[in-house]
């Protein structure tokens, strides 16, 4: 795999005074499932639309299979989009909707009907082929939109939060279908979402954006465990953030003075002494023990009082006041929580291994401003 | 499904901006071209024509103020003009005064369905021929027409209702009443009912509510209705002709006489321009009044 | 709120309502009645009932000719007006450009100018450029008058069309021309047909401008105008009833198309509500 399929270089886009996308660089490999994720207004949808040709970048370039397509018209690009609000044609029935792209490619009627029918079969929609699209349920319409995009056998499929309007039990099913399809077809998927769980469940690579800039690109696991900056740490997963100042550097470890005392954490980027940093500790990496119990050797220990708990099903998030500005979040599997047997107001000891904590340079301002 | 795909042709490069321009032009330009050539140009020509002259029954390009001076200093033009202004203003007042109680009832006392029906009944007349309606009035209001027959039957003296200002007014009202009623109904429907309720709640009696709350809230529609009535009746030539007798003439008839009677096109153009200027002033004044003090 | 509470003035205003409808509808109803009069000078009560006036009108060659001219003019003016109006509405819907407000004002101004002024101006102008006196003169002037209405009808429909549909078509390979044909026109079809019907009705009834520019080529309303200025006769009432019927048919069809068909694609497809 030499050249990436899609190359985005230094692309910026403003709408009036609002800078939606600020000089991003992104490579998308052929056959990858790439998720672009971020809060509302981060520029992810604008980026997708620029790939599709529905917006033109103010600066920068987009290359597809080696050719510069920055200014190519949307109808020349052959990168079908699965829309957030589906945008199915209400004046066409299901099979006509699906065949639309083929019609625009001037495929003869018999052939395009046949190919559309095959896709409807594949997505379990055959019985609805002559129905009006407005008669279908949300999940069915979603599949029609998918079929409409895939029938043209594109190399790239773009998806703009396609599952955001579906009821939750459908979302899980559709996610599985999408993953399957992508694997079977080997098509490149570029999937925009604001949902972390969706991105992590489906994508090979996740791109996190905020305020028009890319904050981090990596495999889901990498992003989850090794956030590149405070924004990513806060946006993804349940992370505790403890600000402090570097006191000592010891190889791959750093000793950091914080409100809670001197903490030891792993550092992955060069740090200066006295630099302001944030220590990131994943909530699921913290152990909680009843007051008085001892921790393992070498672990950081904090004591605190339980101020709240949140039941999430198979896990529970415990909120513990340890003397810092906000409570520490501790995520425990349900059975461990039951074993612990603490309730509100109880005293607990929290501990974690230094390698579970990550030191990141503090950002003076929110990324992107 | 095997992995072979139709090889996607490489996307074309730079967008054909000339193609897009043709597209935009094709859809957007006809309006400009057509209205420019057949609406705007004739009106501009009308202005230009006011400065041309007539020599030996032929209209010729010129740059003279002769026509303006002549018309503006002619007595009967001014008297016709003033008659028209007074009559149109009266029409405006009469229809506004009549339409308001009508609209009040429709907007506040009728159920939604009844209101819809009432509104449809107002729209139907737009599709009847105004000419035929005025003609029918003439037959009804004539010396031996239905109305006078009715009066005689009751025992009242017969009236002359045609060939006078009364007749013209009947015609004007026929022309403008449906539209003004419609505007009033729409305006009043948009009055926030909560304001009315609040006023009642604070002790305002119905009349006060009307004067202090309802009219100010719907002011825009009411004033525009009045302006429409003026504009429509000012330019009408059918009622002055059929119901007004042609003497004394109104300004619309003057124009027609000049046009159909002879070749004094510049003269007719001047009178038309006087009409236009009057109407522009009226509309601007009405807009000012209607929208003054709006946020 | 459908039943407002009592605010007084009930009886008086109710009477005003009746009086006004009576005034508005009196000439309409009476004209209709008079058209069936057996007498030359009908009055209330009606002397006798007869269809003679309809018969005269039917067999009058001038009326026939005028009627067909009206039909021809409407049949030409309506499509042209709708084409131009559609183009303007689509342009308004899709593009922003410098001077757009001016563009719209110029295009939509004609109904606000009194027909007398318009008629006179067009008469002079057409005479000067040699466009006077033919059926085409009337067609041209009617297109000027009717285009704003066609624009409004189509533009209203376009506000309901989800812009994503056009973009979806582009995304699936439809160029701008094909998008108009394959997406916009189908979405607007009821509105386009309604616009045709409404503009045809307007053209069919229009007498003022036609009277000025038509010269000897009378349309039906112009014929009526000439009749009316000549002798009184219930023929006029008969023609009035006929033209009223035709106009009402056209307008009713337009209204049905606009309001009573199940609106297709008026809102973005709402994904997610699972049907049972």
Features:
heterotrimer, B: 295 residues, MetI-like fold, 2 domains, two-stranded antiparallel sheet, 2 strands, C: 276 residues, mainly alpha, globular, disordered N terminus
Average predicted local confidence, pLDDT of chain C: 85
Largest sheet of chain A: 6 strands, mixed
| Mean of residue pLDDT values of chain A | 88
Number of helices of chain C: 11
CATH structural architecture of chain C: Orthogonal Bundle
Oligomerization state: heterotrimer
CATH homology group of chain C: MetI-like
User: Segments of chain A where pLDDT lies below 50 for 5+ residues?
Assistant: none
Helix content estimate of chain C:
over 70%
Overall description:
The complex is a heterotrimer of chains A (369), B (295) and C (276). Chain A has helices at residues 44-52, 94-104, 109-122, 138-150, 168-185, 196-202, 220-225, 230-235, 334-340, and strands at residues 6-15, 18-28, 33-37, 59-64, 67-68, 81-82, 156-160, 188-193, 205-210, 213-218, 239-250, 253-258, 261-267, 276-282, 287-290, 300-311, 315-321, 328-333, 347-352, 357-361. By secondary structure, chain A is an alpha+beta fold. The model of chain A has no long low-confidence stretch (mean pLDDT 88). Chain B is an all-alpha fold and 295 residues long. Chain B has 2 domains: 13-60; 68-291, Orthogonal Bundle (MetI-like fold), CATH 1.10.3720. Helix content of chain B is 73%, strand content 2%. Chain B has 13 helices and 2 strands, in the order αββαααααααααααα. Chain B has helices spanning 17-49, 66-72, 75-109, 112-123, 130-141, 146-154, 165-189, 193-201, 206-217, 219-235, 238-242, 251-261, 265-291; strands spanning 53-55, 58-60. Chain B is globular and about 70 Å long. Residues 1-14 of chain B have low confidence and may be disordered. Chain C has 276 residues and is mainly α. Chain C has a single domain, classed as MetI-like fold (Orthogonal Bundle), CATH 1.10.3720.10. The two termini of chain C are 33 Å apart. The relative contact order of chain C is 0.13. The interface between B and C is large, with 91 and 87 residues.
């Amino acid at each position: 795999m030499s050249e990436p399929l899609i190359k985005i270089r230094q692309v910026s886009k403003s709408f009036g005074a609002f800078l939606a996308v600020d000089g991003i660089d992104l490579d998308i490999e052929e056959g990858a499932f790439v998720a672009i994720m971020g809060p509302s207004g981060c520029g992810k949808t604008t980026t997708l639309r620029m790939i599709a040709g529905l917006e033109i970048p103010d600066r920068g370039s987009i290359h597809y299979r080696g050719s510069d397509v920055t200014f190519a018209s949307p109808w020349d690009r052959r990168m079908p989009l699965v829309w957030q609000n589906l945008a199915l044609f209400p004046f066409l029935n299901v099979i006509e909707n699906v065949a639309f792209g083929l019609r625009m490619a001037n495929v003869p009627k018999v052939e395009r009907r046949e190919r559309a029918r095959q896709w409807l079969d594949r997505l379990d929609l055959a019985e609805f082929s002559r129905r009006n699209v407005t008669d279908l349920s949300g999940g069915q319409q979603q599949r029609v939109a998918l079929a409409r995009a895939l029938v043209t056998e594109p190399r790239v499929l773009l998806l703009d939060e396609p599952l955001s309007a579906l009821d939750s039990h459908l979302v899980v099913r559709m996610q599985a279908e999408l993953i399957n399809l992508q694997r079977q077809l080997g098509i490149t998927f570029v999937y925009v979402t604001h949902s972390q769980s969706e991105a992590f469940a489906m994508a090979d690579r996740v791109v996190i954006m905020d305020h028009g800039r890319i904050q981090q690109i990596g495999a889901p696991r990498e992003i989850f465990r090794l956030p590149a900056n405070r924004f990513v740490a806060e946006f993804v997963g349940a992370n505790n953030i403890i600000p402090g100042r570097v006191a000592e550097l010891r190889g791959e470890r750093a000793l950091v003075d914080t409100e809670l005392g001197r903490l030891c954490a792993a550092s992955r980027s060069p740090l200066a002494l006295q630099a302001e940093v944030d220590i990131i500790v994943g909530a699921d990496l913290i152990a909680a023990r009843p007051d008085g119990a001892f921790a393992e050797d070498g672990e950081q220990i904090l004591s605190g009082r339980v101020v709240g708990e949140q039941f999430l099903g198979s896990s529970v998030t415990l909120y513990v006041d340890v003397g810092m500005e906000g409570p520490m979040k501790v995520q425990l599997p349900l059975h461990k929580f039951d074993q612990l047997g603490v309730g509100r107001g109880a005293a607990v000891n929290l501990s974690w291994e230094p390698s579970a904590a990550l030191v990141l340079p503090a950002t003076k301002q929110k990324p992107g401003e | 499904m095997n992995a072979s795909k139709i090889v996607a042709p490489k996307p074309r490069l730079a967008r054909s901006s000339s193609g897009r321009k043709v597209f935009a032009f094709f859809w957007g330009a006809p309006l400009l071209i057509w209205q420019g050539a057949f609406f705007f140009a004739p009106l501009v020509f009308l202005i230009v024509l006011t400065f041309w002259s007539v020599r030996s029954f032929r209209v010729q390009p010129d740059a003279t103020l002769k026509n303006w001076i002549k018309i503006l200093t002619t007595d009967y033009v001014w008297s016709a003009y003033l008659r028209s202004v007074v009559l149109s203003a009266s029409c405006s007042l009469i229809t506004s005064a009549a339409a308001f109680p009508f609209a009040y009832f429709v907007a506040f006392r009728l159920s939604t369905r009844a209101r819809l029906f009432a509104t449809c009944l107002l729209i139907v007349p737009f599709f009847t021929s105004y000419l035929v309606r005025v003609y029918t009035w003439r037959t009804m209001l004539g010396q031996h027409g239905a109305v006078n027959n009715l009066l005689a039957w009751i025992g009242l003296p017969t009236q002359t209702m045609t060939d006078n200002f009364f007749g013209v007014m009947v015609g004007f009202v026929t022309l403008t009443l449906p539209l003004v009623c419609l505007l009033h109904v729409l305006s009043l429907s948009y009055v926030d009912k909560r304001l009315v309720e609040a006023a009642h709640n604070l002790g305002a009696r119905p009349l006060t509510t009307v004067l202090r709350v309802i009219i100010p809230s719907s002011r825009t529609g009411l004033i525009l209705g009045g302006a429409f009535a003026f504009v429509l009746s000012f330019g009408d030539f059918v009622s002055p002709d059929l119901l007004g007798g042609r003497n004394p003439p109104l300004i619309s008839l003057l124009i027609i006489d000049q046009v159909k009677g002879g070749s004094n096109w510049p003269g007719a153009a001047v009178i038309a321009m006087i009409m236009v200027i009057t109407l522009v002033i009226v509309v601007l004044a009405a807009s000012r009044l209607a929208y003054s003090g709006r946020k | 709120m459908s039943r407002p509470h009592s605010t007084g003035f009930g009886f008086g205003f109710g009477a005003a309502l009746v009086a006004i409808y009576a005034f508005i509808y009196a000439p309409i109803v009476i004209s209709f009645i008079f058209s069936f009069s057996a007498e030359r000078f009908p009055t209330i009560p009606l002397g006798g009932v007869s269809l003679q006036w309809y018969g005269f009108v039917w067999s009058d060659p001038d009326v026939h000719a005028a009627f067909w001219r009206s039909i021809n003019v409407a049949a030409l003016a309506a499509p042209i007006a709708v084409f131009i109006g559609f183009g303007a509405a689509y342009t308004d819907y899709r593009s922003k450009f410098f001077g757009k407000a001016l563009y719209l004002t110029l295009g939509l101004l004609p109904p606000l100018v009194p027909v007398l002024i318009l008629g006179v101006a067009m008469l002079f102008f057409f005479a000067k450029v040699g466009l006077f006196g033919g059926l085409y003169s009337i067609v041209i002037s009617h297109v000027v008058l009717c285009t704003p209405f066609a624009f409004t009808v189509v533009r209203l429909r376009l506000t309901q069309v989800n812009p994503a549909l056009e973009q979806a078509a582009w995304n699936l390979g439809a160029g701008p021309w094909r998008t108009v044909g394959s997406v916009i026109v189908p979405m607007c079809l009821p509105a386009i047909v309604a616009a045709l019907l409404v503009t045809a009705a307007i053209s069919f009834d229009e007498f003022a401008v036609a009277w000025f520019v038509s010269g000897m080529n009378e349309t039906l309303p112009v014929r009526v105008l000439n009749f009316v200025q000549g002798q009184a006769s219930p023929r006029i009432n008969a023609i009035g009833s006929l033209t009223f019927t035709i106009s009402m048919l056209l307008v009713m069809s337009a209204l049905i198309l606009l309001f009573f068909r199940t609106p297709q694609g008026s809102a973005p497809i709402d994904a997610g509500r699972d049907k049972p």
